[in-house]
Amino acid sequence: MSGNLSGRGLADLQGVLHFLQEQRQVVRVTTPVNLEHELAGVASKFDGGKPVLFSAVQKREFPVLAGLYWNREVLARIFDVPVEKLPFYFADMVSQWQQTPVPPVVVESGAAQEVVATTGSLLSELPIPTSGTQEGGPYITAAVVICNDPDTGMRNASIMRFMVTGPDRLTCQMDIGRHLRDYYERAERRGEPLPVTINCGVGPAVHIAAVVPANAAPMDTDELGIASALLGEPLKLVRAKTVPVEAVADSQFVIEGEILPQVREPEGPAAEVTGYYAQKADRWVCRVKAITRRRNPVWHHIMPGREVHNAVGLMAEASIFRTVQRLVPALKGVVLTYGGCGFYHAVIQLNKQVEGIQRNAIMATFAAFPPLKMVTAVDDDVNIYDPRDVEWALATRMWPDRDLIVIPAALGHELNPTTDGGLGAKLGIDATAPVPRPDRFQRMQFQPVSLAEYQFEE
After folding, report:
1. Which of 113, 67, 25 is nearest to 297 (CA)?
2. CB-based burial of residue 1 (10 Å sphere; 0-12 exposed, 13-18 middle, 19+ buried)?
3. Which residues have C-beta within 8 Å of that of residue 146, sequence separation ≥ 6?
4. Is the pLDDT reported for residue 64 higher than 60?
5. Which residues are registered as beta bridge partners of 349?
6. How high does pLDDT run on average in the chain?
7. pLDDT tens, position by position, 293-312
8. Residue 1 clears pLDDT 70, i.e. is over it
9. Cis bond leading into 269, ω under 30°?
């Protein structure tokens, strides 16, 4: 049934939440919590486990879901694929979309517009948490932004952070090189605002489509079609009420607005993918014109940490693997580690038959994913998903005086504080055993058995 979320009732966030509750994969917090710091503090205690549903949020009507994307096992249940195949499944869906795209369809009405508000303190009723104790204010972290190319009209979907600064005002961050930034800058040069819909509480198919790298979804394509491939049917959109942009028809909330030209206001500090704060600075401003929602919506909040790391890693791992394996067929696996923020440290697994191939693989991995700061190469008897096993390889198979590869002044990722505007050193680590393998590097093994053949008590 994988590749058919709609057929399994998992097209929207409500369906996913119901499915996970049936699977006993949700923690429900019934004690009232404060949106400022307390909700995130409680959620952080479950980081990497089951998603957390806060059913009682002080001074707000709506519940909040956190942690939906921080556990790959949970995501594998949703998409009905083995957890180790999840990155490749997403890559296959992107390939399917590239070959036979199924565009979204615009329908006349959707659950996202059951309630419409165009006046009043539009943002004040939303249960938007403040996660980090030093953050500048409440942050919208899980919303998918839809906008149109000001020249061609082509849709773009992306995820960005928004800080609430007033009853109808948001400040936001637009990264260099993103399609959204390009759209905005062209509109700004004309003195025009960029209309957007900020879709809060979308289904996983839409979220995955919005984080596909730009090299897989060029600017002249509608990447929301990737959601159609995951859903097994065309994604449904509705026309916004106050801006000329579509919205996801089954969103929990839709914030309609426009990013203003030539206006910058303070934004931050903001908890970021690195685990540090992005510092306060004057950034872009979105004026809210309307908010539509379901009658009984759930707010979706993405926590800093593993959720963000998975969002990046799950899309990048398969891309790195396929790029590098074409050059180094000995490559058997790639993982972007949680400790590396899903951006900065890749562990690669090799069936090493000839000496030196590990160095080729390390260099190819850096080229395949420029944000990386570190690449560690291990043999295929090492479980790359187990940090303890990787550390074992580092401790027993790496010679510090000859197995470290330092690349100075290379282009990396601007959010990493050890770079200067993105320029910094990279480190490759060879933690593979010599070839041919001496006896002292032969790993201890146990006899393979199946516990199904044994009787035991727990």
Report:
1. 113
2. exposed
3. 155, 156, 157, 196, 197, 199, 224, 245, 246, 247, 248
4. yes
5. 333, 378
6. 94
7. 999 999 999 998 888 888 77
8. no
9. yes
| Strand ranges for 3-92 from DSSP E | 27-29, 52-54, 64-66
298 vs 291: CA distance, rounded Å: 14
Give the distance from CA 439 to its chain's centroid: 43
The amino acid present at 156, given as its one-letter code, is N
**Contacts (Cβ under 8 Å, ≥6 apart) of 389:** 382, 383
Question: How far is Cα of residue 453 from the mean position of the Cα atoms in its chain?
Answer: 41
Predicted confidence at residue 314, as pLDDT, reads: 83
Confidence of residue 414 (pLDDT cuts 50, 70, 90): confident
C-alpha closest to that of 282 among 296, 297, 262, 298 = 262
Q: Are 56 and 33 in contact (CB under 8 A)?
A: yes
Environment class of residue 239 by beta-carbon count within 10 Å: exposed (0-12), middle (13-18) or buried (19+)?
A: middle
Q: What is the mean pLDDT of residues 225-241?
A: 96
Going by C-alpha positions, the residue among 169, 61, 69 that lies closest to residue 115 is: 61
Distances (CA, A) of 324 to 114, 282, 319: 48, 40, 9
Helices 357-368, 306-327: crossing angle, 10 deg rounding: 130
Please return the burial class of 380, using the count of CB atoms within 10 Å of its CB with bins 0-12, 13-18 and 19+.
middle
Residue 458 clears pLDDT 90, i.e. is over it: no
Beta strands in 184-252 (DSSP E): 194-200, 236-239, 246-248
Q: Is the dihedral of CA 239, 242, 243, 248 positive or negative?
A: negative
β-strands 64-66, 299-301: how paired? parallel
Q: Determine the Cα–Cα distance for residues 141 and 69; give it in Å rounded to an integer.
A: 12
* Residue 76 and residue 170 in contact, taking contact as beta carbons nearer than 8 Å: no
Q: Which amino acid is residue 277, in one-letter code?
A: Y
pLDDT of 171 over the 60 cut = yes
β-sheet bridge partners, residue 92: none
**188-200: pLDDT as tens digits:** 999 999 999 999 9
Cα distances (Å, whole numbers) of residue 76 to 2, 28, 84, 94, 132: 10, 21, 9, 17, 29
The count of C-alpha atoms lying within 13 angstroms of the C-alpha of 69, restricted to the half-sphere facing its C-beta, is 30
Residue closest to 148 by CA, chosen among 255, 247, 289: 247
How many Cα atoms within 13 Å fall on the side-chain side of residue 364?
Answer: 22
Q: Which amino acid is at 269?
A: P
Residues in Cβ contact with 108 at an 8 Å cutoff, skipping those fewer than 6 apart: 238
Tokens of residue 449, six digits: 């058995």
Instruction: Please give the Cα distance from 427 to 362 (Å, whole number).
Output: 9
